[in-house]
Amino acid sequence: SEVRNRVIARVFKELNYIEQWGSGINRIKSFCLKAGLKEPFIEEINDFVGVRLFRKELVATDYDGLPKEFKIILDYLMENKTIQTKIVKEKLDVMDTKAKEILKEMTEKNLIEKKGEGRGTYYIIKDNMEI
Q1: Out of 8, 62, 82, 95, which could bridge 122 as a Cys pair, Cβ 3.0 to 4.6 Å?
Q2: 3-class DSSP assignment, residue 37
């Protein structure tokens, strides 16, 4: 690790905000690996440090046993992050009631999470999705 401002670094060390020089990156990497995530991508560009953390990737084989409608919705969510009832109707070519029924069932099965209310309702993939 490289100290850029020795005064600030010393103050942080004395206040116990840091435990040891250079231990943070290794701890971040180990937490990610223990959680089953890819190792973070860390790069230094001039005076900036960029850190890219990755979510657990969902692959098609993870949901082989699910109904076709669920797979279509999950595939859409992987690309677009959110989905609304209107889009489900279009993608599945079903009526409003059936689209809401499918979304409700997926929510109950902990595949997706409902956000917002009324016309602002949308769905996202649940972080701890259970398949």
Answers
A1: 82
A2: coil
Q: What's the predicted TM-score (pTM) here?
A: 0.55
User: Rounded CA gap, 85 and 116, in Å?
Assistant: 12
Query: DSSP secondary-structure letter at 86?
Result: H
How many angstroms separate the CA atoms of 75 and 61, rounded?
12
Q: 85, 59, 89, 86: which is closest to 74 by C-alpha? A: 59
Token couple for 71: 């797979």
The Cα 44–Cα 94 span in angstroms is 50
Count Cα neighbours of 48 within 13 Å in the Cβ-side half-sphere: 3
The dihedral region occupied by 46, where left means phi > 0, alpha psi between -120 and 50, and beta the remainder, is: left
pLDDT in tens, 39-49: 888 888 888 88
